[in-house]
């Protein structure tokens, strides 16, 4: 029968691995291999992942709510900014998708006439 791993040792090992990964990403960013923005996002997600590995459901719920709230707020800000910079954005979404023109009407009439003439009597 196998023993369960010691939780403290596993947690310590995961923290050390996370620290090594953070240092590696920072070194890559300092060397110019990856952008600093990418490194920041990567480290943020790494910290979030390490916090969620804590196996505390309440902590996981709070982190998930923060993530979803962050995404929703950015979505609303982006939509508002797009509407502010593009005054036709609201017009485009409310305008009809298809506008009939004289050319469309004459083409439709021609098609109907050719179908009618090609039908057997």
User: How many E strands?
Assistant: 0
Tell me about the biggest sheet?
Answer: none
Number of H- or I-type helical stretches: 5
Q: What is the SS-derived class?
A: mainly alpha
Give the terminus-to-terminus CA distance. Answer: 88 Å
Strand percentage lies at under 5%
Helix content: over 70%
Low-confidence runs of at least 5 consecutive residues: none
Q: Please write the string of helix (H) and strand (E) elements.
A: HHHHH
What does the average pLDDT come to?
75
* Spatial shape: elongated
Radius of gyration: 30 Å
How does this structure look, described?
Helices cover 79% and strands 0% of the residues. The protein has 121 residues and is an all-alpha fold. Helix 1 packs antiparallel against helix 2 (36-52). 0% of the residues are buried.
């Amino acid at each position: 029968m196998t023993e369960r791993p010691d939780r403290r040792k596993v947690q310590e090992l995961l923290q050390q691995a996370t620290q090594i990964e953070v240092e590696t990403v920072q070194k890559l960013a300092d060397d110019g291999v990856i952008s600093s923005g990418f490194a920041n996002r990567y480290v943020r997600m790494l910290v979030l992942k390490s916090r969620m590995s804590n196996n505390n459901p309440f902590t996981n719920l709070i982190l998930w709510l923060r993530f979803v709230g962050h995404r929703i707020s950015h979505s609303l800000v982006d939509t508002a900014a797009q509407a502010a910079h593009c005054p036709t954005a609201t017009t485009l979404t409310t305008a009809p998708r298809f506008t009939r023109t004289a050319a469309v009407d004459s083409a439709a009439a021609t098609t109907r006439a050719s179908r009618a003439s090609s039908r057997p009597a």
